[in-house]
Design a protein that fits this description.
The chain is α/β, with parallel strands linked by helices. The chain has a single domain (2-189), classed as 3-Layer(aba) Sandwich (Rossmann fold). The protein is 40% helix and 23% strand. It binds S-adenosylmethionine (SAM). S-adenosylmethionine is lined by residues 9, 14-17, 41-44, 46-47, 64-67, 70, 94-95, 113-115, 118.
Length: 190
């Protein structure tokens, strides 16, 4: 099923989370017993399926995307995987508009995987949304190995590098950068 979802993601030109980082998402969701999860950037639903695999059966994934067509593909992937419709809440809109409407401390895990220039704002919102012990995961934290190369100073690399620095320096969080896939920055809310 993941394979079909990946194929649809490729057709839509939307890069899904890579397998190593995806498997880690399942583990993080299971470890956090994540009943309430937010995904920023639904795409074709690949990351969503990894999250749902780790979540308890009564958990609900809220997933946000600007592109209705991407969410349609994701819903197809959920149906193929046999995910009950009550387990997912898809919200169409700009993440910067949707996230502020979600409840403080109401979530067990937030996965950030949308437009990279929005990452600083999404991460700040994620920290607000997480309950103590909740988990933050940020995809593409290595950004094709450009983040670790000080010679790379293009705008997106700089934004992602700064997000990594800010998360590591944030005393509300305990952080680890896992070099799986394109890099998964993970943190637990104290
Ligand atoms: C990398 S893809 C998400 C991949 C998905 N998480 C997965 O693993 O399969 C990024 C998604 O973010 C969405 N996106 C881009 N800018 C956005 C914004 N400002 N608000 C919400 N979604 C956005 C795109 O439409 C795209 O579907």
């Amino acid at each position: 099923m993941l394979l079909r979802a990946r194929e649809r993601a490729a057709q839509l030109g939307c890069t899904p989370v890579l397998p190593g980082a995806g498997a880690l998402l399942s583990v993080l969701a299971a470890a956090a017993q994540a009943r309430a999860v937010v995904e920023v950037g639904t795409g074709a639903g690949v990351g969503s399926l990894y999250l749902l695999r780790g979540m308890p059966a009564d958990g609900v994934l809220t997933t946000i995307d600007l592109e209705v067509e991407h969410q349609r593909a994701a819903k197809q992937a959920f149906a193929e995987e046999g995910v009950r419709p009550t387990r997912t809440r898809t919200i169409s809109g700009r993440a910067a508009d949707v996230l502020p409407r979600l409840t403080d401390g109401g979530y067990d895990l937030v996965f950030v995987d949308a437009d990279k220039d929005g990452y600083p704002g999404y991460v700040e919102q994620a920290v607000r949304l997480l309950r103590p012990g909740g988990v933050l995961a940020v995809d593409n934290a290595l950004w094709h190995d450009r983040v670790g190369d000080p010679a790379r100073r293009d705008e997106l690399t700089t934004v992602i590098r700064e997000v990594g620095r800010a998360v590591r320096a944030d005393e509300r969080l305990v952080t680890a950068l896992v070099p799986s896939g394109d890099g998964l920055l993970t943190a637990v809310r104290r």
